[in-house]
Specification:
It is a single chain. This protein has 99 residues and is an all-alpha fold. The chain contains four helices and no strands.
């Protein structure tokens, strides 16, 4: 059976990236009222990720780079990952002039 400190270390390493990825993808894939809830969850996950990253950097833990990259991916992912609305084809905007 693994030691409690080893279990906590594994959770500390894996929980942040999973939380960040889940919150970002939920924001990008939801529409309507679900999108508003997903945006609130993403903002909460971003605040949690910020405080956990700050704690990790202050304590000089070995996983500070994982938490910092997760926080950066969450912030940049909002701008880089396309949302569901941008992937849906809208009405044609090109008009063909009469011959």
């Amino acid at each position: 059976m693994p030691d409690a400190s080893l279990t906590f270390a594994l959770v500390d390493i894996m929980a942040m990236p999973l939380l960040g990825f889940w919150a970002l993808m939920a924001t990008k894939l939801c529409v309507g009222d679900a999108l508003r809830k997903a945006e609130r969850r993403f903002f909460l996950a971003l605040i949690i990720a910020s405080f956990v990253t700050l704690r990790t950097v202050m304590r000089l833990d070995d996983v500070w780079i994982v938490h910092t990259v997760t926080l950066a991916a969450m912030i940049l992912g909002v701008f880089i990952v396309p949302s569901r609305d941008s992937l849906v084809a809208g009405p044609a905007t090109v008009q063909i002039p009469p011959a």
